[in-house]
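User: We ran a pulldown and think these components assemble together. Before we commit to crystallization trials, I'd like a predicted model of the whole complex to look at. Sequences follow.
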Amino acid sequence: MDWNFILFTFIKIACVIGAVLTMFAYSVLAERKISAFIQDRVGPNRVALPLIGSVPVVGPFLTRLGFWQPIADGLKTILKEDFTPAYVRKAYFWLAPAIALIPSFLTTAVIPFGSTLGNPNKKMVIADLDVGILYTFGIVSLGVYGIVLAGYAANSKYPFLGGIRSSAQMISYEIAMGMSVVPLFLVVGNLNLSKVIEYQAQNGWLICYAPVSFFIFLVSSFAETNRLPFDLPECETELVAGYNTEYSSMKFALFFMGEYANMIAASSMMVVLFFGGWTLPGLTTPANTLATGLLHIGIFVGKMLALMVLFIWVRWMLPRFRYDQLMDLGWRRFIPLALANILFYAGWFWMKT
Amino acid sequence: MQDLFFYLFAALTLLCGFLVVANPFSRNPVTSAMFLALTIVSMAGLFVLLHAFFLAAVQILVYAGAVIVLFLFVIMLLDLKEEQRRTANKFGIVTGVISVGAITVILIKTIFESHATATVATPALEGATQPLGRMLFNDYVLPFEILSVLLLVAMVGVILLSKKDLR
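Assistant: Here's a predicted model for the assembly, 520 residues in total across the polymer chains.
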């Protein structure tokens, strides 16, 4: 065992988790600000820190931007009463929020978020697995347990219905999602995500090769992250708040965090698979210096944030699907479409050889 | 290091497997299903130690991610109060012990009869997906196709049985 390697990996893990948590806090703010913009409101603009708030131009600007809002939100959730109803199944009630959060962090392990830091041995990915994409799908499929168990643990009607809905929904859309990426790997010929980016650096982004795949993947990831238009497991008008009805305080915050961490993971997967990861047209060689290494990470984060804004935008623009429409879309539209897509690419490569 | 992980995952697999069928603390079927999921995850750990990353990933993806979630789905929809009160009956114990004993005998016999040639060659399927696919679709294509037809038949059968009015 190489201690340098272990230390470097630990630093990477700490940085990635720190980055995901920060992004979680600020994507909640972005969600509130963008929804306010779409609904013609102002959004959070009150929270100010005592000293910085009184700095002439910057202070009021940051306050109006809601920059300190995440701190207030965090404090509020921690200080709220953590109420456990008497009729819940205790063990699962405590376990479910953790199970909901962990998989979304685990997926970030295989995502190459940059090229190198100058030195070719210092790859900017925590685990460069040969079966990277399968690992991601495996872990994503474990994410359903958190919601199902939350629904079961609450031991009351609406959370239970939410849990049942989510298990059916997530399994259905996982199939479409898994099938949608098969053409990509027919094109690239490798399951390793670093190799996928390498291919895109040389031949252009994969979204140009497989636009149908991207469409299916995008819609399926809305369903997988339980976001509107597919947030049936927690749909307020029918199920109160779905699977997290009985949860309060920090336990609820963990579910919330899980949802946003899932969004972050899904966006970064899309950046890696369809938008060339850290590459830009004309900027395709792995970094030789620290500065270009950081630039590559910046490019990756920039693309990811753009997709996050898309996630948030769609949530506030589209109405919710009905449950039978959701199932119909998954099984009768997307799975046949994804299969036809695979056949098309397979046939195309067969003709070429 | 590798040995340590082997014993860890093997012990976890056995312990969780035991808790699936005979949990002394709770007779809740959901708990059993969760321990089955843990058994499968620790078996995936054993596959990783054998450098079969593809199998490990597929194991988690298919079993833990889909099959057991469906188990949970069904268990949660059934009324389980009765199941929790039920005690093990004699017939179940006898058949269970007999089948486990038979499998154990077969396993032990196979282990002793296999010629333990000391050279453990590095497996041709070292983790990579390509050799596995090549083998599956060239050498073993017939069994593979037969298996998929079997699954298809099962699926058609389920749809036929669950349909109330046949047109």
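The mean pLDDT of chain A is 84. That may be worth checking against your pulldown data before setting up trials.

User: Thanks, that helps.
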